[in-house]
Amino acid sequence: MPYIEIKTNVQVQDHKKFIKELSTYSAAALNKPISYICVSLQDNLSMLFNDSDEPTYIAGVTSIGLDSATKTTMSKELGEFLEKELKASNDRGYIIYNGIDPANVGYKGSVFG
């Protein structure tokens, strides 16, 4: 049930390409089937980071089963992905992780837990 949300002040030229690549990357990084991955992008927002409007982002990763090793690896790799795609260095954004109990996720008329 991973949900990856990206908010940025950068205007992304090809939304479909960006979210497709983010979805593929996230499935691999989280070791989840791509059929469970949901991603969203909000771009061209009014955002400041460290009192600067240079390229920046805030990323949210919500998933069942987020362990420390996964978060550490994903922080590095997602930071690299966003730096490549948004031209925002990894010191220009935060990645917020939200581990969630399977019993709190509804899907197909039931819950995971």
Please tell me about this protein's structure.
- It is a single chain.
- The chain is of the alpha/beta class.
- The protein has a single domain (3-103), classed as 2-Layer Sandwich (Macrophage Migration Inhibitory Factor), CATH 3.30.429.10.
- It is built from 2 helices and 6 strands, in the order βαββαβββ.
- It has helices at residues 15-30, 68-86, and strands at 3-8, 38-42, 57-63, 93-99, 106-107, 110-111.
- Strands 2-1-3-4 form a 4-stranded mixed β-sheet, with helices on one face. A two-stranded antiparallel sheet has the order 5-6.
- The N and C termini lie close together (12 Å).
- The mean pLDDT is 95.
| CATH architecture label | 2-Layer Sandwich
The whole-number mean of residue pLDDT values reads: 95
| CATH classification class | Alpha Beta
Strand content: 25-35%
User: How many distinct beta strands?
Assistant: 6
Strand arrangement, major sheet: 2-1-3-4
CATH topology: Macrophage Migration Inhibitory Factor
Q: What does the largest sheet look like? A: 4 strands, mixed
Q: Work out the helicity level.
A: 25-40%
Return the domain count.
1
CA radius of gyration: 14 Å
Shape: globular
Q: Catalogue the unreliable spans.
A: none
Number of helical runs?
A: 2
Keywords: Cytokine, Isomerase, Secreted
Protein name: L-dopachrome isomerase
Organism: Rhizophagus irregularis
GO molecular function: dopachrome isomerase activity; phenylpyruvate tautomerase activity
